[in-house]
Amino acid sequence: MLNSFADLVTYKLLGLLKGSPLGEAVHFFIYDTIKIFLLLTVIIFVVSYLRSYITPEKTRKVLSGRFGFLGNILAALFGIVTPFCSCSAVPLFIGFVEAGVPLGVTFSYLVSAPMVNEVALVMLLGMFGVKVALIYVASGLVIAIISGIIIGKLKLEHWVEDYVYQIKMGEQAATSHGMTFAQRVEFAKFATKDILKKVWPYVVVAITIGGFMHGYVPTDFFIKYAGKGQFWAVPFAVLLGIPLYSNAAGVIPIVKVLFEKGVALGTVLAFMMSVTALSLPEMIILRKVLKPKLLATFVSIVGFGILLTGYLFNAIF
Question: Which stretches are transmembrane (predicted)?
Answer without folding.
Answer: 28-50, 70-94, 133-152, 199-219, 231-255, 261-281, 293-313
